[in-house]
Design a protein that fits this description.
The chain has helices at about 5-20, 30-35, 40-50, 55-65, 70-95, 100-130, 135-160, 170-190, 205-210, 215-230, 230-245, 255-260, 260-275, 280-310, 315-345, 350-380, 390-410, and strands spanning about 160, 165. The protein is mainly alpha-helical. A hairpin with a 2-residue loop joins strand 1 and strand 2.
Length: about 425
């Protein structure tokens, strides 16, 4: 894509889109655990996953058939950002805040944010094609700046503080996220028009064409997306809390990994930034099946390294290596999957198909994974006298290993339409 001005605008869109998420997603579990609400982590992330079951498809359908995509994106970020800002102020100003109101505010904010992930992708894809670009070639370098935004937000949450309390341990992480979403809401209105792809007659159902996606190898890919998506939220919910748990041990309490866990975990997103650039080559050279298997192998390694590592040298190097392989684990599934769908679905259903992909991964898959992981954590960590974090990580690694074998046997590389 030769239009640098257009590319810069999409880069800024991607940067803000993920900066708003990175401000709280990796550190929310640590904040809740420190507030004595660790057992509620699974329910908050489950609420987000439940909303992903219907919100991306609903908003995607509106974007395909009724409204300009960039305007819908603005509206969603305005609502999500306002609610996130209120939730952060509630936690910050009320010393004895309760889980009830906080849960409602976070659940609704997350529900409105989730469809913006696929919606921002659809906006970028449409603008790239209109500018004469190629989505497989041009989108990864744009999406890379989304990861950069995520990293910068994580680092800000780690090092910024109010009255000596860092954002990663307080509700200020939610305030930061809300402000960034409101900025993006305003910026989205300045983006190029992204009109609906087709017009439909009033009363015509979108269910049948969308249902047609669930046939053949594309449908099988959607099915496996559920089971792969089940592992994506485990680290978001518990990795930071896991590292923070070492603070109770005098041997590890003053180590960098414990005091700056958000900064250490930011290495994961830094790795993601570089791995995105490998996607065009790997997709064209290996195909979607091998790329997915590489992703699953990386997830297995990530969990094993978490289970074996410690915050002090040399064990902390295993944590660092776990963060480095995250880029392969996440990008080779999430970004490659989105590009695979873009190339194998008709133009009249792409926004809905992207929404369906989010539904399968961040919705149904994440719901299953969040609840299952939550019960594992309750049994081995939160509701036991002797927490066993390592065994929990080993269980997650074993799950992905079984999934990889099944995927290798049943999934076949489809021909792109």
């Amino acid at each position: 894509m030769n239009d640098r001005a257009v590319k810069f605008r999409l880069i800024l869109l991607s940067f803000l889109q993920y900066a708003a998420w990175g401000a709280y997603l990796p550190s929310l579990g640590r904040f809740l655990t420190g507030a004595g609400l660790g057992s509620y982590i699974k329910w908050i992330f489950a609420a987000q996953s439940i909303s992903a079951l219907f919100m991306p498809a609903l908003v995607g359908s509106l974007a395909d058939r009724r409204f300009q995509k960039q305007r819908l994106l603005s509206l969603c970020h305005f609502i999500s950002g306002a609610l996130m800002l209120v939730s952060g102020l509630y936690c910050t100003l009320c010393a004895d805040f309760g889980i009830g109101l906080l849960f409602v505010l976070l659940a609704v904010s997350m529900a409105v944010y989730i469809p913006t992930i696929s919606l921002s992708n659809s906006v970028s894809f449409q603008v790239i094609v209109r500018a004469g670009g190629d989505t497989v070639r041009d989108f990864p370098s744009i999406r890379m700046f989304g990861t950069l935004g995520f990293v910068i937000s994580m680092l800000a949450t780690n090092f910024l503080s109010v009255d000596g309390v860092r954002f990663q341990n307080s509700g200020m992480q939610l305030v930061l996220s809300g402000v960034l979403s409101l900025i993006l809401a305003a910026y989205s209105l300045s983006l190029p028009q992204c009109l609906p792809d087709v017009d439909v007659q009033p009363g015509k159902s979108d269910a049948k064409p969308l249902f047609s996606l669930l046939r053949g190898q594309v449908g099988l890919f959607f099915l496996f997306s559920v089971f792969i998506g089940a592992v994506m939220k485990i680290g978001d919910g518990y990795a930071n809390a896991f590292m923070g748990s070492f603070a109770s041990d005098p041997i590890y309490a003053d180590t960098f990994a414990v005091k700056n866990s958000n900064a250490l975990l930011a290495v994961s997103q830094m790795s993601e930034t570089f791995c995105i650039l490998l996607i065009p080559f790997c997709m064209k050279r290996f195909g979607i099946k091998k790329v997915m298997l590489i992703s699953m192998a990386a997830w297995i390694l990530r969990f094993l390294l978490f289970g074996l590592g410690t915050p002090a040298m040399p064990g902390v190097l295993l944590f660092v290596l776990s963060c480095l392989v995250y880029g392969v684990a996440f990008d080779f599934f999430n970004i490659s999957g989105s590009l695979f769908i873009e190339k194998n679905v008709g133009s009249d259903m792409r926004a809905r198909a992207q929404g369906a992909f989010i539904l399968m991964t961040n919705g149904l898959g994440a719901l299953i994974g969040t609840l299952a992981a939550g019960f594992v954590m309750d049994a081995l960590v939160y509701k036991t006298d002797v927490p066993d974090w390592s065994m929990a990580w080993f269980i997650f690694a074993g799950y992905v290993a079984v999934l990889a074998v099944v995927f290798a046997i049943f999934f076949k590389e489809p021909e792109s339409e």
